């Protein structure tokens, strides 16, 4: 239990990239993933947001080059999570835009959203286009918990998104975790 008085400041750990996150919370997130065995957490940063949608938007923003002439294409292999197109284009950012199915994508710069197990079909997926060159993958692992699928390997990707609502079964919980 983290005492309430401990969170009375915007600064809990100024040496951390996520300076407002409680160090105890960071340690417990890492402990949970090590215990479950669903994600490699050593040597990465744990970020927290108000749900994984906020962290997805942060990843899209961070991965999109600021000086690009065209917005970076955001793709996912069909069938994909129905919220991806809407959330990608929600802010009408000039940095990135929804470009559809990764199977039919033709282009250079892209961000591939990889949902595994996939919503809506439950398939275990890897990046179709891969991370390399002008392309980056963001792995949405909201359902990569033992109550939804067998944990066959420890996910170890550059960017992994998790959400507490799926791990606990509380759909209204607005805590997302990202491992970068």
TrEMBL record:
One of its GO terms (biological process) is amino acid metabolic process. Keywords: Pyridoxal phosphate. Pfam families: Alliinase_C. Its cofactor is pyridoxal 5'-phosphate. The keyword Signal does not apply. InterPro entries: Alliinase_C, Ethylene_sulfur-biosynth, PyrdxlP-dep_Trfase, PyrdxlP-dep_Trfase_major. It comes from the Eukaryota. Residues 1-176 form the Alliinase C-terminal domain. One of its GO terms (molecular function) is carbon-sulfur lyase activity. The keyword ATP-binding does not apply. PANTHER family: BIFUNCTIONAL ASPARTATE AMINOTRANSFERASE AND GLUTAMATE/ASPARTATE-PREPHENATE AMINOTRANSFERASE-RELATED, TRYPTOPHAN AMINOTRANSFERASE-RELATED PROTEIN 2. This is Alliinase C-terminal domain-containing protein. It comes from Aegilops tauschii subsp. strangulata (Goatgrass).
């Amino acid at each position: 239990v983290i005492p309430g008085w401990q969170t009375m400041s915007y600064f809990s750990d100024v040496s951390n990239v996520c300076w407002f996150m409680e160090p105890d919370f960071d340690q417990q997130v890492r402990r949970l993933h090590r215990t479950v065995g669903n994600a490699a957490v050593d040597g990465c940063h744990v970020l927290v947001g108000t749900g994984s949608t906020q962290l997805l938007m942060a990843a899209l923003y961070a991965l999109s080059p600021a000086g690009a002439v065209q917005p970076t294409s955001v793709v996912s292999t069909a069938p994909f999570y129905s919220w991806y197109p809407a959330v990608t284009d929600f802010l009408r950012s000039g940095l990135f835009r929804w470009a559809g199915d990764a199977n039919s994508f033709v282009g250079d710069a892209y961000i591939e959203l990889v949902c595994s197990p996939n919503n809506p079909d439950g398939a275990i997926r890897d990046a179709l286009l891969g991370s390399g060159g002008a392309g980056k993958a963001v792995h949405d692992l909201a359902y990569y918990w033992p109550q939804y699928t067998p944990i066959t390997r420890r996910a170890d990707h550059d960017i992994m998104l998790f959400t507490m609502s799926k791990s606990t079964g509380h759909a209204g919980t607005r805590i997302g975790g990202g491992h970068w």
